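Recall the central idea of this unit: under ordinary conditions, the amino acid sequence of a chain determines the structure it adopts. In this exercise we apply that idea directly, starting from the sequence alone.
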Amino acid sequence: MGMIGKAGVPTASEILEPSSASLMRKRIFGHYGLMIGIGSLLVIFAIALLAPMLAPFDPLDQELSRKLIPPIWSGSAKATWVYPLGTDGLGRDYLSRLIYGSQISLLIGFSAMLISGVIGTTLGVLAGYFGGRVDMVVNFIITTRLSMPVVLVALAVVSLVGNSLWIVIWVLGLLIWDRFAVVVRSSTLQVRNLDYVAAAQAIGCSKMRIIFSEIMPNIMNNLIVVATVEMAHAIILEAALSFLGLGVQPPAPSWGLMISEGKGLMFFHPWLIGIPGAALFVLILAINLMGDGVRDVTAPENRN
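Accordingly, the structure predicted from this sequence is:
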């Protein structure tokens, strides 16, 4: 049997044992949380990308004669399929605003996560790999950041500097990097003492090559989980700022702003906050399910 295997014919063990790729596919497609999260996110991404084609009306188009039309499930005589999710207090189509609002939430979540990820990952890797004084300085920076409440600082900065979309993104990105730094520092401390890092150092690899070739690929599992958590965190913070009137400004169709605009009528028209609130819930749940699922299927104990 060994001779047949050497001749190019697969051996019995090779036939019976599944490959690493097939095992990974089985883990991915067998993880229902991951599949639900990825599927939901793909749907939301598709809605955001195709918003101009999917939205039946201009999300900024106002018409007071059609204000506060209830959604079709309300049973009201005013409900109509022309506005399946109803209209707001200014007569704007709620479905169109919900569709375009997905663009703002995804843009803010991804951009703020990317900014904070670059800052936090850089600080965490430097502290974990070099240690010593570098670690002390980074720990001082992290402690200083953790002493500042995110929402209050964001409110103060946005109220002083301004509250355009990109200012909100940069403010959030510069305030939520601490979790990246803490997790990456801890992971780097564990990885830097392993044999393959020592082997790379022994053959004369540069520090930058060791960091990018040996350390970063082996902490990516934890990094992905933190990235999804921070993306969801940024979306929630933007919604909170918009709810307080210091986030994305009217008439932009932000989901947090839609909740803020509907809070005065919530006892008479609860769907004004229920619909964007449900959209935020689905998006945050999808992001977290995807992050947990990726961590599960790529965990070191599951690798071959």
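Residues 94-130 form the longest helix (37 residues).
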